[in-house]
Amino acid sequence: MNTPLKTQLQKQTNEFFIRLEEVKPLCDANCKIKDVDRVEHILNALINGGTKRLQLVSDFDYTITKQRTADGSPVLSSFGIFNSCKSLPKGYVEETERLYHKYRPIEVDPHLPIQEKTKYMVEWWTKSGELLVGFPFDENEIDEVAFKYKDSLRDQSNVLFHTLYRLNIPVLIFSAGLGNSVISVLKHAKVLLPNVKVISNFLRYRNCLLDGFQEPMIHTFNKNETVLEGSDYYELVHERDHIIVMGDSIGDADMARGVPASSNIIKIGFLFDHVEENLERYMNVFDIVLIDDQTMNVPLALLSAIEAQEKKNLEKSFQFNS
Ligand SMILES: [Mg+2]
Q: Which InterPro entries match (predicted)?
């Protein structure tokens, strides 16, 4: 059955059917939805499935953190935080910058096929890891720099993380950046709660000296649930086939790849740079595109719609049983 027809039938038979216009932040002018019927249909599936089937999968850099701050102060990426650590050898920082200028244009080139790009990304991350070998590094330095960025999370992030924790919804943060910085920022922002799992690149040590990154390498084009295969978390999230995905790069829309085909997924894309040129591409891969929205209002609104209905269902079943 095609989605609009199915949605139509659902509207007729389900007294709890919610229309997108009832979810206030989705009505804002900076919220763009290509296929309203489809999103309405998935949102209602998420609502009917309740919190037990739900998980949130999110990118970190410029998705959990802001793309723009109110006072114009810059927000560092997770690798940016690491590269700001004063004790790193000068040659490391210079070489890292050289690699960035070589590989970043390839990463964002809209014409190069993903397969081709992946080859270069593996090369980039491998070379970056090789630069991090053979010198001492005190991780407390990351903590000191990250502390300065504890307020760089999107507005309402604290409420979002605590709501997800209260509702027992797993949060998977997928980052092709540096996991040590991600963990540190989340910790200082007081949102590193027990339901939060970070999959990223973490520093490895040998004989008290840096020894590159731990395996597996997470780069821009393999950050999806297929890299979790075999892990405990893979088992856990595979029982949760209702997913809210959040990201700020086109590739982030693919983060839930590897979950069962029957899954219901709502993808939220935060768009900030070159809005006019990028809007169409973003609308093709994300269900909901938010233009220069530096808040967590939309994911929170989706969660509260899901929670509100779950409460009503519970009350109903209580009345029915008593
Ligand atoms: Mg990002």
A: HAD-like_sf (IPR036412), HAD_sf (IPR023214), Pyrimidine_nucleotidase_eu (IPR006434)
Q: Which residues, by Cβ under 5 Å, contact ligand 1, an ion?
A: 59, 61-62, 248
Residue of 56, 194, 220 lying closest to 122 (CA atoms)? 220
CA 151 to chain CA centroid, Å, is 18
* pLDDT tens-digit map of 142-187: 999 999 999 999 999 999 999 999 999 999 999 999 999 999 999 9
Kind of pairing, strands 288-291 and 31-33? antiparallel
Q: Could you read off the pLDDT of 116-144 as tens digits, one per residue?
A: 999 999 999 999 999 999 999 999 999 99
CA of 79 to the centre of ligand 1 (A): 12
CA nearest to 31, candidates 254, 250, 302 = 302
Contacts of 2 (CB under 8 A, 6+ apart): none
pTM reported for the whole predicted model: 0.91
pLDDT of residue 15: 58
Is the CB of residue 216 less than 8 Å from the CB of residue 149? no
For the cut 80, the answer to whether the pLDDT of residue 3 exceeds it is no
Q: How far is the CA of 5 from the centre of ligand 1 (A)?
A: 36
